[in-house]
Design goal:
By secondary structure, the chain is an alpha/beta fold. Helices cover 44% and strands 19% of the residues. It contains 13 helices and twelve strands. Helix 3 crosses helix 5, helix 3 packs across helix 6 and helix 8 crosses helix 13.
Length: 342
């Protein structure tokens, strides 16, 4: 062979040279794959809430340097800044907000486990956990719990009053055994059982010119100050449609999300209110007149439970008593005649 001819390298030599390198363990070594652990997420969440390492340290029972080190370690391992330092405050970056948003279900599950562990420790295993929206916590749940306790004197109850989105999250995560709400949105993981179909009602201040009319329409309240849900809220959308049928516009002067908040405003003479039927008919010492509204706006009162989990015995007892109470107090009545639209 000519000495000037390049020497050929056998493929095996190339392969053996590659194999001779140190293996890349970036994606296989657990120490490098775990970029952030649960404790660090907890620290980031606390710092995001308090905007200072001192406040976060007090909540978590840690030292301030330990909190600072946890943040630095997380930022180093992830490779992005999680907080901007502005005037001695720690403001979360968009990356931190994205990370913590995905971590929230983990925290909710952890809180659920903590509560159940505490129930076991304190002998409260078997407690019935109920999540309810504001109106029903005031107008329905106390009456049903009175009946439940009469029938089951040893029952233990934990009641949470929550916004609709929080209520659904609590039932889905198992933090609540049962949720009680009006017109809840459909969720594939939940069963929504209708306890009764009630309706939206009008309430008028004492001595109002409309006080003697059993049924009110959008024509009747034309030009009057209205107190009720915002137009974009679920009930507000239904009121929009009802008013449009009469060529009127639903435009509340005072927007009140909750009926149990709107009712006292009506009692103060601030306007005519649109509230749920339970609030209208069963508010203690109510200082207003109650009227049906036409066209009828139905409101379903529902109980929410997990779809793939058996309903515990005490939760079922609560459901049965709630349904019986509602059907007794809000028994079906003749629907008011529909007035011709303009």
């Amino acid at each position: 062979m000519d000495s000037n001819t390049p020497k050929q390298v056998h493929p095996r030599c190339t392969k053996s040279t590659t194999l001779g390198r140190a293996p890349d363990t970036t994606m296989t070594n657990p120490a490098t794959r775990t970029l952030i652990n649960l404790r660090q997420l907890e620290v980031l969440r606390a710092v995001m809430r308090y905007r200072t390492t001192t406040g976060a340290a007090e909540e978590l029972g840690m030292s301030q340097p330990a909190v600072s080190n946890a943040i630095k370690l997380a930022e180093t391992k992830i490779g992005v800044a999680l907080f901007d330092r502005v005037s001695n405050r720690l403001l979360p970056t968009a990356d931190a907000q994205l990370l913590l948003a995905d971590a929230e279900p983990i925290f909710r599950l952890h809180e659920t486990i903590q509560r159940k562990a505490w129930d076991l420790r304190t002998g409260r295993a078997g407690v019935l956990r109920i999540a309810s929206t504001a109106e029903l916590s005031q107008m329905l749940v106390p009456r049903v719990l009175r009946l439940l306790q009469d029938a089951h004197p040893d029952v233990r109850i934990a009641l949470e009053t929550l916004r609709m989105d929080e209520l659904i999250e609590n039932v889905e995560s198992g933090s609540a055994d049962i949720g009680v709400a009006m017109r809840p949105p459909n969720r594939p993981s939940l069963v929504s059982e209708v306890l009764i179909e009630s309706e939206l009602m009008c309430i008028c201040p004492p001595g109002d010119p409309l006080a003697d009319m059993p049924v009110l329409t959008p024509f009747d309240v034309h030009g009057r100050d209205i107190i009720g849900p915002a137009s974009g809220a679920p009930l507000g959308v239904l009121l929009d449609a009802a008013f449009e049928r009469f060529g009127e516009r639903y435009s509340p002067r005072i927007e009140a999300r909750f009926s149990n908040v709107a009712a006292p405003l009506v009692e103060q003479g601030l306007g005519i209110g649109f509230v749920d039927e339970l609030t209208a008919r069963h508010r203690p010492h109510a200082g207003y007149s109650v009227h049906r509204f036409s066209p009828r706006v139905p409101i379903k009162v529902c109980a929410l439970v997990l779809r793939d989990k058996p309903v515990q015995r005490m939760a079922q007892a609560f459901l049965d008593l709630a349904r019986e109470f509602l059907q007794t107090q809000l028994d079906p009545r003749t629907v008011p005649p529909e007035m011709p639209a303009a």
